[in-house]
């Protein structure tokens, strides 16, 4: 059966999609990379990594948790060697492309957090002692904050560190099971040391949560140190390569010098001293939320769009027109409505991510100049956007997966692991509902200040703008004007009505915290609406600044319009509520929105090609550049361990059943 | 550290939730089971299965795909033995409880479909030959319909069966790679036979898709028969226990007698004869969609609610009131807003499922009396409800998973496997978007008929009711009246505007199929709205019929109201659109909705207790009846294979790194 299985280059159904692009794919790629020279550097690095078999992810979908962990450690160790060979450094421009390609599928990421926490929170002496050991991997570190019973609410941590003046040591204990450290990466099997967050007690008085460096395993034989119980927390939806760990401490002693002491210290006589501002610590947490967005959240959505859109241009199913060939599923309006808004969102988030990084770089400079004014705004931004982008991208990846039908459900499509990976981002680094409520608290404060005529940060001045009257648009084309649709999102009704309800409840005698709790469902909506508005605004501003030489501005304008109108179409109630839009106008929005789907569909494949993922980095039987999806599914399935052996089930159970027949014949 | 790890019975935080139930849990359980005697039978069967170690699912979350498959075959073989021992039969009342407990985690389910297809499509002679062999497991069957390139659109299947007069055989072939059979369960490693669906050719003429019994493996040594290439399609998001297979046929010959011939036959001279109606075939497909809802779709949502709600009554995080103990997360409005609408939906779907089964039983009786009038309505019902219930339950399980934070992400919570399992139901037995459009086609037809004054089925007469004016409700309590909220859902605007758009497009010169395609996004919404309306209506009618002796009617009324108001709150735009509800009225809906959350929260734990799942059937470290979540997470994690061995990664990669340090010391 040689002939039906041959792979004849690029699938013609996919090739034809590339012939009609309305813009230059190469130019758009360069624009996304921030310049053609960045594209060249990125491609050279990807080439160097992909040509090295030690980094291969072939057969990854067949591996057990133990095999994945081993491979991740192998990759981490090999990476050090590779970096020396190639002359790449931790602070060089290459590093982001390296980690982006590795997609976090590597060990010792928490070792890097261990180092960062010592650098930020440790005294100069502590930095001088520990950082060189960690840099050379002579010790392997982890970061033990979260406990079985405590995640987001850090003040509630239950691990204790009691200062013993007699021995000048801290005595660390896990007083109850909910106080076990749980989840820290690199801790289950790798780490020799970890930073433990514990409630500090001196002379019976509690000083709150502080960080301590604790050795947990022997450097000789890797066995747990006395008093230490440590292990792996077992299987998860993803992150099989990471040894997320548990840790129980029973009278574990560490010297006084092991409490990280850049900002506070316990002196030999038990005196507790604190100096410097703690605010900068919060800023670190804040920046982490922004730093994960690109690689851990937006990239998975871009990959999922690439896989689903290429597959939808190759998959044919049912007939659109009687008598014709079966249609590409991308030609069905319902399929366009599933995938194209996700594509628009991927671009929208790429641009908002650039904006957020610029904002935080500016904020960091101000803070270094000891100006902390922007901290509340930055905190509100990082909380709200982390929550919004992770939520949107998780839902987007799931839509892409489901849009590929049965084959999307196969691990070989690559979509399930993208989904289970991005889903975690909704939970880690702050649970999303809690984060939205932090943003809401900031917005309520600003709204109250604006009502009282006080100045508020520029990003929220729209909150004080007058209540809009009626939308003047009369034709469906009017809704393709950013001036028109930006006004939609500027309304602050969700916020003002929450503020009014809050005040009303308090005036009616409710306690403040209870009143707040009763408004939280609406406050979350208000925070989401705020982030949505900023995202549309930045997309509009980005499009305005684009050059249109290679057709890029035009196609980006379509995506921007689609992102905006999809938001209105999906939240119609918010716009109809106070009559700003009439039902008839909502029909025009719907008409414009559906028209845009048909327009963008023509460029859909080139728009995902522009993300410039290699086949190896997609690792998807459905998403490869050549579109030979069935061939690849078959080739990959043959390598599955389920095909590598006769199952013991045959000898044990099937054969006796079937032999039963033979004996009767 | 003995003391902190002790498990002192039921967690007091969970016990206290059970003291304040407003209704009798035992009475509600009996009501859900359809009578106390059913509850007794179910519990006896569950007890018999759970006490048999051969059915244990302990350590399931640690097993590889190969191990899961072997265990599933073991269970299937053991079940036959157990049934003989216990006197249970395939047609007895026990069978549904057995399979419900097994949760489909067993082999030979497609073997049952193989048998059903022969019973329905085979001639008496074929039934007499094959059914006894299959019943005794002397052969193992599968059902090979779906191909790599074809799922939902059966007419497009590409496998061929050419009749060879000379040998009186059919010659079966896989002409190209997209024609490979792909996905059939029990085929990858177990089956000896399968029913292959192929395009029948006689004398060069194609007669469309027909079913053929094909032997694919030797009964002696299980090796593939000549011309047969067969294997397992590899890893999936779930169903690791099932050997979904691929199959390629090269000139495989089967005797003329192997074409299933209850309805048509190829005679020895090549004459093709067809008799009887094919409609009954569609009815079989239709009933399968309804039959999966209970165990595969609604049950996972009930389990997820049980796990998430019990955990939320035990998990404490952050302080609601300063100075107090940390609050149960179930006391946060945002957590209630996540979980309680899912709980209401689980009950709503339980009742609609009973209704659908009654409807289909009646339909089946009519059809046996050769009255096929109800077929279109039944088809529309089965398509729409399969799509709506699977979609809603999948999203509900995901919400439950995310509401449990990090621990929900651990496989040990049981939530990830519930999610990945129920997600598949959106795809199999007909892709949901395609199914909604089938319902929409039926609704459009009825709408047109009603407009022309023709009679329409009772379930859709509301489509011809007059356009409603304004909603008269003035107080938030008004929205707790079913008379008020049922009217909301009765509107047919989504449908009538789609119909108008369709007509307008056709009158403007668009071809019919293209006009249809351009309306599909809106048509899907219209079909969803229809199914939602019927669900609310049946919930209301069920509540009205309930006895209120044990407080059951009252608590069910709350859930019914919540389900209805959640629907309005979440789709506000549809109700505000034509001014049926004003913005001020929508505020009243919101207020009533939020009030209900606080009311139902008080009964949340008893309401999931009433589902009466055993700990073993939940298989969740977070969801057990005693609420000892941290203890159980720790105990289970210790059994993980990641803790059973020192990873080879230590010797290969970590030790050399760390020794590096020792050598320098």
Return residue spans of chain A where pLDDT drops below 50 for at least 5 consecutive residues.
1-5
Our count of helices of chain A gives: 23
Strand content of chain A: 5-15%
**What is the alpha-carbon Rg of chain A in Å?**
28 Å
What is the rounded distance between the termini of chain A? 35 Å
Mean pLDDT of chain A: 93
* Structural class based on helices, strands and sheet pairing of chain A: alpha+beta
Shape of chain A: globular
Total strand segments of chain A: 11
User: Main beta sheet of chain A, described?
Assistant: 6 strands, mixed
Largest interface: A-B, 145 and 145 residues
Please, what is the oligomeric state?
A: homodimer
Q: Helical content of chain A, roughly?
A: 40-55%
InterPro entries (chains A, B): ACOX_C_alpha1 (IPR055060), Acyl-CoA_ox_N (IPR029320), Acyl-CoA_Oxase/DH_mid-dom_sf (IPR046373), Acyl-CoA_oxidase (IPR012258), Acyl-CoA_oxidase_C (IPR002655), AcylCo_DH-like_C (IPR036250), AcylCoA_DH/ox_N_sf (IPR037069), AcylCoA_DH/oxidase_NM_dom_sf (IPR009100)
Keywords (chains A, B): FAD, Fatty acid metabolism, Flavoprotein, Lipid metabolism, Oxidoreductase, Peroxisome, Phosphoprotein
Organism (chains A, B): Apteryx owenii
Family (chains A, B): Belongs to the acyl-CoA oxidase family.
